[in-house]
Amino acid sequence: MASISFRDVTKTYGRGAHANKVIHGVSAEIADGEFVVIVGPSGCGKSTLLRMVAGLEEITGGEISIGERVVNDIEPAQRDIAMVFQNYALYPHMSVYDNMAYGLKIAKVPKEEIEQRVRKAAKILEIEDYLKRTPRQLSGGQRQRVAMGRAIVRMPKVYLFDEPLSNLDAKLRAQTRIEIQNLHAELGTTSLFVTHDQVEAMTLAQRMIVMNAGVMEQIGTPEEVYRKPATTFVASFIGSPPMNLIEGEASGTKFSAPGTVLDLPAPAPRDGRLILGMRPEHADIVADARGGWRVKVEVVEMLGAERLIYGRLCGQQFILRIDETLTPPRVGDTVTLAEAPDHLHWFDAASGRRIAR
Fold first, then answer.
1. How far apart, in Å, are the Cα atoms of 173 and each of 162, 163, 165?
2. What are the tens digits of pLDDT across the range 241-290?
3. Strand (E) positions, 221-325?
4. What is the DSSP string of 9-63?
5. Is residue 205 part of a domain?
6. What total of structural domains would you count in the chain?
7. What CATH number is given to the structural domain containing 193?
8. Which residues contact 292 (CB under 8 A, 6 or more apart)?
9. Kind and range of the H or E element at 215?
């Protein structure tokens, strides 16, 4: 096993006037044995960053180290990594056993050791009964297990997962997430996992890197990223539904937004142009209509154990999440919110960066 280190890593395609910089100075330290998820929207650079660790993309600037070794100029085969792809990348004419054993055979590992490694990986992934089948005889979830098994038998220093669950249906994705968590708990190998799905990121990660347009917006535990987003991008990307964000002018305990002046439960961290944020679950509907923030209800969604209330506040969409045991308001009603000062988030309107209280 080994740690991974990013030191001001950049990636640029093309040169001169046609240069397109897609990774902008990423720096991060991933500890030996840690499971880190790189999450962000399509085109944010997360897969490019992973492919640079694998050696499938050249590094334009900075350094990437695996363990104590800088790998910028080292061939992929020499980096001691194993990669699991979105599309499985299995040989269709080979059996499951041969797919898992192929890399070891190329590396001239003794036949007895190959047998031992493949059988052990198959047992961990519960695919022992499928070793004689070909990939076309397997379901999508079973094929993904075979792809993970092929990586496991390599016994590398680092596992790299490039959106491996994207081709699975919702039920299989949830099941495979649990399998990956159990796998990491058993093997303890340093892992990088790329996804655009925030649920995968929040449930799998020990720490997560949030990427946006080639920039690392934040790195931290899922709880840290959710409770204290570093930027408005993180606040709006992590969380379902996303954080409510309202831009306005703060002055003490008053917050002026288009058409409305909100009374704040505590003074804003500073006066001036700010963005006020609140998670949908952090405001309660109260009966007293004399104070608080007033939201006109436009849509009510029933989601099993909870309801989402969509309305307008300060001329902008505002979402509330309430428990299904509560009587929901009706469309057209105006509800009053009791906001909690500990759950208000403040961001600089110009930079989008979080303002510490």
1. 14, 11, 6
2. 999 999 999 999 999 988 788 989 889 999 999 999 999 999 888 876 56
3. 244-251, 254-257, 260-263, 272-278, 283-286, 293-303, 306-313, 316-323
4. EEEEES-GGG-EEEEEEEEEEE-TT-EEEEE-STTSSHHHHHHHHHTSS--SEEE
5. yes
6. 2
7. 3.40.50.300
8. 263, 286, 336, 337, 338, 339
9. strand 215-220
